[in-house]
Amino acid sequence: MADRELSIREISDRMQIHDVLLRYTTAIDTDDLDLLDQVFTPDAHVDYTSSEGPAGPYPEIKAWLGRALAAFPMRQHGILNTRIELDGDRARAVSILFNPMGAPAADGGQHLFVVGGQYRDELVWTPDGWRISQRIELQEYLQGSLPPGHVVAK
Fold it and tell me: Are 130 and 13 in contact (CB under 8 A)?
């Protein structure tokens, strides 16, 4: 890619895919889970099993996210170093994720921890623009620990 010029379409596709990825972080971090409808295809498959979450169809995962994220009022997602491979109306993206999270601590402070890993996404061009048709989260580390007594929502 470095040895050739990008077409306007390639530049546009890459920017739109980045927008989809950022829309995901905004939806999660602001509790606007309906915004996820502009991130995933209705039949997308989403897999959070590496962080003890479920894998399944997007509508089920969206409902689970509402339950799971309620325990962590402090969330900041960073998506970094995204590599995008375009193939017509399909694309693959691999992004590093850096996700500090916090929950109220028994002493009145915050119990903080950081999740790091990768999002491995397959995207498709739809009449509404680029959407993720498959996401696999690969948690590579957890700095700190989940709050004492925390049970992963199912």
Answer: yes
Cβ-based neighbour number of residue 100 at 10 Å: 17
Q: Judge whether residue 2 has pLDDT over 90.
A: no
Q: How many residues does the chain have?
A: 154
Q: 139: which residues sit within 8 A by CB, 6+ positions away?
A: 50, 51, 115, 116, 117
Note the pLDDT tens digit of each residue in 54-95: 999 999 999 999 999 999 999 999 999 999 999 999 999 999
At residue 102, the 3 state secondary structure works out as strand
- Within a domain: 1: no
Q: Tens of pLDDT along 119-132?
A: 999 999 999 999 99
CA gap 63, 33 in Å, rounded: 9
Residue 150 domain flag: no
Domain of 72: which CATH number?
A: 3.10.450.50
CA 32 to chain CA centroid, nearest Å: 13
Does the residue 116 lie in any domain? yes
Contact indicator for 144, 114 with CB cutoff of 8 Å: yes
Residues 6 or more apart whose CB falls under 8 angstroms from that of 6 comprise 14
Residue 123 belongs to what domain range?
Answer: 8-143
pTM: 0.93
